[in-house]
Amino acid sequence: MSYQFSPLNPPLLANTPDPFNLDPALLQREIGITEWKGGRAWDIQRPGSNLYIDRAFEWARFNVKRFQYWERQGVLEHFADDFERTVTTVTGSEITRKQEFERTLNLEVTAQGSALGFLAKLSVEAKTSLRITNSITEVWRDSTTAVDKVTFKAGCSYLTWLLKEAFTVVKTAHVAHMRGTGPFDERNIYSRFDVPPVTATAEATIGIYRDKKRQSEVEYRRLQKLEEKSHDS
């Protein structure tokens, strides 16, 4: 039975003969795409001067894709006896990863404890195209850690998956340098150039699924070999 993406569950051991070598396209879904335009200006040094007496202007276009995908965490495990251990789960988005995303795009950097600042900059139309709601914004707050005691049952195999939410942004931009630091004036422009495109991706963990299936040691070894094969490819 071929797996079709669902945010409710990843490919299950119960009905997926090989969950390790699936087409990556089956493990994700596109939620929305949009185009967003933005601009910024900043003071710069005039060539041959130590003073910030000129102005730079940037006109940027951002092509944005929002998608979700399942990602395996750890390796397939099988237990001969009941076994209890402490499991740590991290959800949300790491502040350093969010800030790296925004620095790559030359956007204002998200403050500690805040949701992804990039989302607040989008227009209403862009948010509609990306199907962004207040509840979605909340998952982009700083990552949180939960620690639980989990009992793994004898004779069962376990495979853990993380459900990820992501934005991939491709930015193209044109920059102009102007003499003076006043408002934009075409007559004072002395340099124009295109900036090479940059791509940045931000991701957040929004769910965890611990798959469980009762199976023999032989079946576990078969799956283990398939998992090793996926690491080699």
Question: What topology emerges from the helices and strands here?
Answer:
Layout: E1 28-44, E2 54-79, E3 83-91, H1 95-104, H2 117-121, H3 124-130, H4 134-138, E4 144-152, E5 156-179, E6 189-214, H5 217-232
Describe the structure.
The protein has 233 residues and is an alpha+beta fold. The protein contains five helices and six strands, in the order βββααααβββα. The strands form two sheets. The chain has a four-stranded antiparallel sheet with strand order 1-2-5-6, sandwiched between helices. Strands 3-4 form a two-stranded antiparallel sheet. The two termini are 23 Å apart. The model has no long low-confidence stretch (mean pLDDT 91).
What is the mean pLDDT? 91
Main sheet summary: 4 strands, antiparallel
> Biggest sheet, strands in spatial order?
1-2-5-6
Q: Count up the helices.
A: 5
| Rg, Cα atoms, Å | 24 Å
List how many beta strands DSSP finds.
6
Strand content: over 45%
Shape descriptor reads elongated
Helix content: 10-25%
Order of helices and strands: EEEHHHHEEEH
Concise synopsis of the structure shown:
The chain has helices spanning 95-104, 117-121, 124-130, 134-138, 217-232; strands at 28-44, 54-79, 83-91, 144-152, 156-179, 189-214. The chain has 233 residues and is of the alpha+beta class.
